């Protein structure tokens, strides 16, 4: 028995990268999972894999930019498991480009997924957690939530926003509900696939050469969940040694 066993954990953006690695890791520790993302075929495959390994998981197609979709996702978890212990607001996109490229659609998509998606996760889960008197919200920021580099102004702005939202939430509801931010450095995933700008894509190739496995972030998330109820891990920054 550990402090993850039997916990009901919801993961957004579980169809690849950090979300999928976290699902595998937490299922291996006995968590009961509800996985969400737009690509239901990927989630179905992951849920089968987890069940075959003896874990407990279910999935529901989810678009985090749509509050009704998020509410249905949280409701599905409650229906399946009776409560929710943790929501991991992990879904994110990173179409990097210089501001002067004026890729307004991509700016809006980052704002919609990376900020509104996190707010929607909070809006859907918080009332239930408050009525239960306990819960944990884990939000994915980034080292980009601490500093800005060229091409990453809007992405970083969304991750700074995640920091602000998480800190505000902690101050307001921290008595009963734990709030943790996980801020990864460069990690193996499909995140760079969302870059359409040719020069930003090229620059990212060398940056990503030193990426750490997504399992490293899964372990950090598991650490935050596994703490006893009177311990709230506010933030964990995880960087690959190869790419400081
Ligand atoms: P991936 O691209 O591998 O995963 C992103 C996930 O988000 C996918 O499962 C995708 O699923 C989901 N997603 C995107 N848009 C939506 C949407 N509208 N609704 C629901 N789900 C959506 O990248 P990572 O695993 O790297 O990203 C996970 C988080 O980690 C992100 O918040 C990212 O910003 C953060 N991060 C990643 C770093 C890295 O180097 N990899 C570094 C710092 C932070 P689908 O397309 O099926 O909907």
Briefly characterize the structure.
The chain has helices at residues 17-28, 40-52, 67-81, 104-132, 153-173, 198-208, 214-226, and strands at 8-12, 32-37, 56-61, 86-89, 135-140, 177-184, 235-238.
Task: Describe the protein.
By secondary structure, this protein is an alpha/beta fold. The protein is 47% helix and 16% strand. The protein is built from seven helices and seven strands; from the N terminus they run E-H-E-H-E-H-E-H-E-H-E-H-H-E. Strand 1, helix 1 (17-28) and strand 2 form a beta-alpha-beta unit. Helix 3 packs parallel to helix 4 (104-132). The termini are far apart.
Topology summary:
Elements (H helix, E strand, L loop, with lengths): L7 E5 L4 H12 L3 E6 L2 H13 L3 E6 L5 H15 L4 E4 L14 H29 L2 E6 L12 H21 L3 E8 L13 H11 L5 H13 L8 E4 L6
Parallel strand pairs: 1-2, 1-4, 2-3, 4-5, 5-6, 6-7
Helix pairs in contact: 1-7, 3-4, 4-5
This protein binds NADPH dihydro-nicotinamide-adenine-dinucleotide phosphate (NDP).
Class by alpha and beta content:
alpha/beta
Mean residue pLDDT: 96
Unreliable spans are none
Envelope shape: globular
Q: How do the helices and strands follow one another from N- to C-terminus? A: EHEHEHEHEHEHHE
- CATH architecture title of the domain at 8-92 and 108-142 and 160-183 and 218-238: 3-Layer(aba) Sandwich
Helix proportion: 40-55%
Separation of the first and last Cα atoms = 36 Å
Relevant CATH superfamily of the domain at 8-92 and 108-142 and 160-183 and 218-238: NAD(P)-binding Rossmann-like Domain
- Main beta sheet: 7 strands, parallel
Query: What is the CATH top level name of the domain at 8-92 and 108-142 and 160-183 and 218-238?
Result: Alpha Beta
Number of helices: 7
User: Which topology of the domain at 8-92 and 108-142 and 160-183 and 218-238 does CATH recognise?
Assistant: Rossmann fold
Which band does the percent of strand residues land in? 15-25%
Number of strands: 7
Radius of gyration: 17 Å
Which ligands does the model contain, each kind named once? NADPH dihydro-nicotinamide-adenine-dinucleotide phosphate
Strand neighbour order, sheet with most strands: 3-2-1-4-5-6-7
InterPro entries: KR_dom, NAD(P)-bd_dom_sf, Sc_DH/Rdtase_CS, SDR_fam
Keywords: Oxidoreductase
Domain Ketoreductase: 7-189
Family: Belongs to the short-chain dehydrogenases/reductases (SDR) family.
């Amino acid at each position: 028995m550990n402090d993850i066993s039997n916990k009901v954990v919801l993961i957004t953006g579980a169809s690849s990268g950090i979300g999928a690695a976290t699902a595998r890791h937490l299922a291996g520790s006995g968590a009961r999972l509800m996985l969400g993302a737009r690509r239901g075929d990927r989630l179905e495959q992951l849920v089968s894999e987890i069940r075959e390994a003896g874990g407990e998981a279910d999935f529901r197609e989810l678009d985090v930019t749509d509050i009704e979709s998020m509410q249905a996702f949280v409701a599905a978890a409650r229906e399946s498991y009776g409560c929710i212990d943790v929501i991991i607001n992990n879904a994110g996109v990173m179409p990097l480009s210089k501001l002067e490229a004026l890729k307004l659609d991509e700016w809006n998509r980052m704002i919609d997924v990376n900020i509104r998606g996190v707010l929607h996760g909070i809006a859907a889960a918080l009332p239930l957690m408050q009525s239960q008197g306990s819960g944990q919200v884990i939000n994915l920021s980034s080292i980009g939530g601490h500093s800005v580099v060229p091409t990453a102004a809007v992405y970083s702005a969304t991750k700074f926003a995640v920091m602000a939202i998480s800190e505000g939430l902690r101050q307001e509801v921290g008595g009963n509900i734990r709030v943790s931010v996980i801020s990864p450095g460069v990690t193996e995933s499909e995140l760079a696939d969302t870059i359409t700008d040719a020069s930003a894509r090229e620059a990212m190739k060398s940056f990503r050469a030193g990426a750490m496995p997504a399992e490293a972030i899964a372990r950090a998330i598991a650490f935050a969940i596994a703490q006893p109820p009177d311990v709230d891990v506010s933030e964990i920054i995880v960087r690959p040694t190869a790419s400081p």
